[in-house]
Design brief:
The complex is a heterodimer of chains A (about 260) and B (about 650). With about 260 residues, chain A is an alpha/beta fold. In chain A, a hairpin with a 2-residue loop joins strand 4 and strand 5. Chain A is globular. Chain B is of the alpha/beta class and about 650 residues long. Helix content of chain B is about 60%, strand content about 10%. Chain B has a six-stranded mixed β-sheet, sandwiched between helices. In chain B, helix 24 links the parallel strand 9 and strand 10. The longest helix of chain B is centred in the first third of the chain and has 27 residues. The two termini of chain B are about 50 Å apart. In chain B, about 55% of the residues are buried. The chains are: A alpha/beta (about 260), B alpha/beta (about 650).
Chain lengths: ~260, ~650
Amino acid sequence: MCIWESKLSGGSPLLEIVDLHVAYGRLEVVHGISLTVEPGAFTVLLGRNGAGKTTTLRAVSGLIRKRAGVVRFGGADITRASPAAILRDGLVQVLDGHRVFASLTVDDNLQVSIFGSGQSRDAATIDSIYQSFPELEERRWQPAARLSGGQQQILAVAQGLVAKPRLLILDEPSAGLAPLVVDRILKLAKSLTEQGTAILLVEQFVKKALAYADHCYIMDHGSLVGAGRPDQLQESGIIHRVYLGGEPDTATAQI
Amino acid sequence: MTMRALGSGPMQFILAALIILLPLLGGPYAVHLATLIAAYWTLIAGLNLVVGFTGQLSVGHVGLLAVGAYMFAILTARNIVGPEVALVLAGVTGGLCGLLLGLPSLRLPGFYFAMTTLAFTIIVVELAVALTDVTGGGTGVMVSAFSPPMDTQRGQYLFTAGIAGVVTLMTVLVTRSMWGRAMVSVRESEVMAASVGIPGYRVKLAVFTFSGVVAGVAGALFGALQTYITPDTFAFDLSLFFFICIIIGGKGSIIGPFIGTVVLTLLPEAVSPLAKYSHLFYGVLLLAVVLLIPGGLGALIDGPRAAKANDASPGGGLESHLAQARQAFGLGRPRDDLAAAAAGQSMTQSIASTRTLDGLDASQHSPGGSAMRTKSHGSAASLRLPHPVAAGGSLEAVGVSRSFDAVKALQDVSLTAQRGTVHGLIGPNGSGKTTLLNILSGYYAVDSGSVMLDGHNITRSPANWRPRHGIGRTFQTPRVIPELTVLDNVMAGGWSEAQATFVEALVSGPRAIRDERKLRGTALALLSGLGLRALAERPANAMTHAELRFVEIARALMHSPGFILLDEPASGLTDTEIDRLGEVIGALRRQGVGVLLVEHHTDLVFGASDVVTTLNFGRVIRTGTPDEVRADPEVRRVYLGE
């Protein structure tokens, strides 16, 4: 019944979220989200501020407790797994708001990330990161606190990349970044998908995100209100409606 | 929230009177214990302002208690003055010691401040031992009783409890004033406090001196109750005891630490056969509270009350839903969860809030109750500064350079922002935009160059001076006081508009009352102008990211700044919210405010700005009209990439 199921025919999805509910205290904020991310797919999750996107992502990577639902990653049930185990499994999340270890150097920030992902130290990985982000190499031996807000955000993304994820979740990576850098990061993410890494992106630059996406989900008020290929969603007008604050029309959700 | 949680009105006074009279029903032992609690609480109420509200960890108040007690004992023993005058002089001495101790130590960061207060206590106790002639040395000194009718046990109790009651009332009043907001601002972030003109050091010093006065008075009351004091009476344990009472009670609460004091004083007595284990009980209780109710006892009491207040407010379903949520959170979740809960709560809130922003968009019609509520509250067109801004004039950076270690963050940068214009500041990440903003707002010193405001050199003026002289700012990551309401957060911006002194705030003098009324009106008008009126009574930690950005702007506008420096205000906002931000910037510009806009959303910068400056590697590469800058090949190469 849903158009994106045609994409599933190729094999089992990398990430599968089934009927996920997340609550804070007695207040439920995510009401039964189901979505999938295919291996190597560039998937985008859209929605207004406060729609429940960040909460969903954090629940998936084990940072907040799930009230109900199942999350499978690579076929294994990770619903109750610890954040550390999920990370070592290859599901890496770059949190919103340029979170880095301020007192560690740029280099140590990357080393810590490699350590956390359970890989062995590998000079080549870090070198390739510095190639992609020369602004980080310049500041390699400085504490991250010395970086500007935008550079810290670049470092946070780089930390995600050195973990060599199977699925990289990016929560508003563009916040505070210069336009050129936003394009650079999105292109880099796209090139990762070509090497088999799947991307799940939350972004407020809707147009830019859609330009790179293979598949897109839209959330509003803690529920999924639309899903499909970017062109399908744009044609249906649902993105416009959601962002302008109209009532979600469930009839149009299934294109 | 907690600031208002004690409520007001005759009910509270009747309740307080009943609590004070209750111990009189018991025997002499009960009255003795109650007197001890009242004396302790007199000190703790003052210390609570230092620790719980202003966030300064003093472990040295037993030293101030000793100063008061010895002062009282010596003055009365030698018949220099009567006991009541001696009590006042004990308070004065305590206040002086507090002031002298605070003057150097309150400039130090938290840990070092705590160590200084510890050192002070050690010095006082050692002096009490050494100055045998005055203090009686190790053998101690007798303490006289008060004059009749306070010389009976009950009389003494009522006198002590009365003083404790007055001190409590003062702390309640001061925490509800602008000074209270300033204290909490200092606790949460001195950077944020400075951004609205709050002089952190002065606030800390006022609060610490007051705590010294009441500690001195408490020392006299305590000494009179003990009838005999030695240096051992003022063991360091007692300081820890005071501290633990406040921790168990919870930060930013008055009733919580009070209950903490009562419980911790009675606990060892209730299990007197196990008196030798009393420290063990403190330890276990402290662990239990920290682990189970990290908000402290105050959170248990204040939390539901605040929720009820929410329930009662006109708003209907969603409000009570939120109140419920708050109540659930109040029941103590681990700290991380609380923070997450705050973030998460905002998710559902956006049902109302995003619409709140949208509802103002004239072209929009959003269904639902919240939109109806907000509909009548005007749009950016109704955004008015509290006071008109003087026309003309400029804020300038002249040849400013600044390095951090080897990194040259700014090199010979000049920029002139005019009132009544929007000056965009763009550039690659790390090009020095925020550094320049921090220099203009006084957070960083320059290595060379100067900052000029209307032709006056303000290079050396501190950060908290600048808001008071018309330079406001917001932060890249919104800085608010999470547990206060949106309204209180905005009112915290009104420091330079408030006139009442600390002492006036303690007794809620006419100027303090007038300040409150005025600031409240100003803050509500600004929130209405920004379309956030409906959120005024909600806790800030329940707001979405976008709302906090507008709350920060409202806070900065409280003192009618001639210039406002916005650090990436559109970051993380949706297109609709960015449009709204553009309207707000336009409204400020029309009212003569000079806006310095650091931003990466190029549509907003080029659409809203009159002049745009581009930085790269700490140097200005182009200043001009938006069209000129946009067409500049260098700007396109290093930044726009179009």
